Amino acid sequence: MGSKGKAKRPISAWKPKNHLLVVLSDQGAQKRFAPEGLGLRGRDRSWNPWAASFLSVNRPQLASLGVEASLDAGRDAVEMFLRPGGIVGAVPLRSPDTHKVLGGIVVKPRFGWKDIGPLLSATEWAASPEILSFPLVPGSSREVPPWVLAGPIVYRLKAILREITRGFHLHEEVRQVPRGQIIWSKYCAQHLPRGAFHTLPCRFPELGPNQVLLSHIRWGLGRVGVSLAARAQVDVIARRLLDEVTLMIRDLGEIQPKAPTHQVLDRILMGTSLPAAVLRQGIEALSWIADERGLAGQSENDGLSWRLPMHELFERWVESLVRTWSRDFGGQVTTAQKGDARFPLRWERTGLGSLTALAPDIVVKTGDTVYIFDAKYKRHLQELDEWQWRELEEELRAEHRHDVHQILAYAALFDAPRIVSVLVYPMYLETWFRLSEKGRTVTRAILPGVDRQVEIALVGVPLHLQPGTQVRDVVGIWDSLRLVNDQH
Length: 488
Fold this sequence. Notes:
- It is a single chain.
- It contains 14 helices and 19 strands.
- By secondary structure, it is of the alpha+beta class.
- It folds into three domains: 18-111 and 132-139, no CATH class; 149-305, no CATH class; 309-482, no CATH class.
- The strands form five sheets. The protein has a six-stranded mixed sheet, with helices on both faces.
- β3 (68-73) and β4 (78-83) form a beta hairpin.
- α4 packs antiparallel against α6 (211-229).
- The chain is globular, with a radius of gyration of 28 Å.
- The chain starts with a helix and ends in a 13-residue tail after the last helix.
- Residues 1-17 have low confidence and may be disordered.
């Protein structure tokens, strides 16, 4: 048979034509996961012979996103179900027989990207996606907006530029007259073999911005700008970030872009006098781009492996709202995230206590009142609005009771005449508007005591503010919490 006949040889039926991408919604219902598309070889391509191997090779990836896999033995075959937790992100999936990456899982925020984008921007990416060490996720960039990963990079590079001042930094230069420290290892390895005895590689402190670092930042901003430009016309967050990138590039003036190597980035990390955390995070962001790991790189469809616990993002959003609210009456704000609202538990016998401390998310003190805010990224208040309490699943009712007991435990930590314990839940914007018109975004209950009054409040907040709506429109309703209710 000639080459023409070979060209018409059919492709094996089991070979997948597209990468398998499973898309879930955080805290959503479980989803049946069929073995089709895994590229399994052999006569039996069901889960029967492959389930255990698949779970074993993909356990770290599933665990990183909090996805629970369960098996159900049916009459004819084993079925697999995936239940998402409260973590959004993307991870690759490996084949149970070859262990090669064949697809991935993307967990989207149940409130939608259009709500999460403004939230990340409003909190200045305080809760940023965590980049994972797994391989690229095939096809994930088609499901995840570019700003999810570009946003933290832009803000990290912006922080470096903000910190750069005319201070001393270490500079390396080849000189004929020694200055500072001679780098003997480089001299012996590169200069002596060439007979360049008179040229000396030196390292010395120099006044002024680190030009090498600035050139790498300029390069990184250019690459991120390319990834954002494709979506800037249809995505408001991508457009905002692209505008910031454009301004930062303009401020860098005539600095020429230069791609860094990991060796150069490590050297900058050791020899630049900037705040350690700011510099480390910025260098890490540049390394992500330098690796071309699906961000501003050569792949249009493959994306980085990453994760973002939604409860962390929601806590930062609630903290931002509380700080805005308390500013009007001079409330003193402390947070568990910064470690100033943490109360250690001292057990009688060490090693027996599973809980070592109580840490309410946010505490506001003003006059004789203490407000305790605990952010709960759960469905309770949304579903309490849609259905009556008696119609809710027992699991939801049990979770809600647990939240109430927890916030009451926090109330016992403070000695004040009045304690207001507030459970804050997320809501869809439409639901929040409907309830706010009826004055039902804040619901209170009172537990009167002999020496003090303890109140519990359920508060719903939207995760997205539509144009024309301000943060003060949301927190203005909270002023009812400041009114002392003597009923009951």
